[in-house]
Amino acid sequence: MAKALARLGWDYDHHQGSHMIPRQGAPPHRRLTSPDHDPIQTGTLAAIMRAPGIDRDQLRRLLD
Fold first, then answer.
1. Which terminus of the chain faces fewer neighbouring Cβ atoms within 10 Å, N or C?
2. What tens digit of pLDDT does each residue of 2-25 get?
3. Which residues are within 8 A (CB) of 48 and not within 5 positions of it... i.e. 6 or more apart?
4. Which residues make Cβ contacts (< 8 Å) with residue 29, sequence separation at least 6?
5. What does the angle CA 41 – CA 48 – CA 56 come to, to the nearest 5 degrees?
6. Which of 30, 58, 27, 26 is nearest to 45 (CA)?
């Protein structure tokens, strides 16, 4: 997930426990909380994908 977010312009900001906190590189510099473990539950993955506005097909392309 970190790889896909990096390709969308989200930069690593910090870690908090078992979660990674990336930050959007361009304004408004939003932050997103993402678990740093596998597997990510379906509902959690859907919520993470909603923040940058991507769908399942776009995520697959970003991870290739």
1. C
2. 889 999 999 999 999 999 999 999
3. 1, 32, 34, 40
4. 23
5. 80
6. 58
Give the number of other Cβ atoms within 10 Å of residue 1's Cβ.
21
Torsion of CA 24, 30, 33, 38, to 10 degrees: -30
Q: Is the dihedral of CA 21, 36, 43, 46 positive or negative?
A: positive
State how far the Cα of 35 lies from the Cα of 44, in Å rounded to an integer: 9
Say what the pTM is. Answer: 0.79
- CA–CA gap between residue 49 and residue 54 (Å, rounded): 5
